[in-house]
Write a structure and sequence with these properties.
By secondary structure, this protein is an alpha/beta fold. It has one domain (about 10-155): Rossmann fold (3-Layer(aba) Sandwich), CATH 3.40.50.620. It has six helices and five strands, in the order αβαβααβαββα. The protein has a five-stranded parallel β-sheet. The chain is globular and about 55 Å long.
């Protein structure tokens, strides 16, 4: 298995989760594109980590992000996004998923806690049936990748 602070494959993260659960660790999971890291993301990761022992962040692959956000995205490729996230103290493991949603990954891993931003309604959160608890943290107003992209365009032209 890869050492800590490297992105793991689906098989590696599944095996690791089984071991961590056996050891009594509380596993927290969140997911997203995390194309341009901003304060909202950092707040989410820090709050998520405070809820358990291990924070797993699942990121959309470049291909799935492009399908979700359009042909001009991602701005940062999946390997770079994973490495950036792993540099954060609050993030323990990163896994890349290629589907549009993390449903299959959540079904496989069955973490204890699923964390999403407050812009999601609980009943619309994918995979909530595979976890004990779902937490939604407030969305940080004005802090989003789209806001950053628009600001760059406004300041530096198209």
């Amino acid at each position: 298995m890869k050492s800590i602070k490297q992105a793991l494959t689906r098989k590696e993260i599944s095996s690791l989760c089984k071991k961590l659960k056996k050891d009594g660790k509380k596993i927290v999971f969140t997911n997203g594109c995390f194309d341009l890291l901003h304060l909202g993301h950092i707040n989410l990761f820090e709050k998520a980590k405070s809820l358990g022992d291990i924070l797993i962040v699942a990121i959309n692959s470049d291909k799935s992000l492009k399908k979700l956000k359009g042909s001009k995205r991602p701005l940062v490729n999946e390997k770079d996004r994973a490495k950036i996230l792993l540099a954060l103290k609050s993030v323990d493991f990163v896994v890349v998923f290629g589907e549009q949603t993390p449903y299959n990954l959540l079904k496989l891993l069955r973490p204890d806690i699923l964390v999403k931003g407050g812009d999601y309604k609980t009943e619309g959160i994918i995979g909530r049936e595979f976890v004990q608890t779902v937490y939604r943290f407030p969305f940080v107003k004005g802090r989003s990748t789209t806001t950053l992209i628009n600001l760059i365009i406004k300041r530096y032209g198209k």
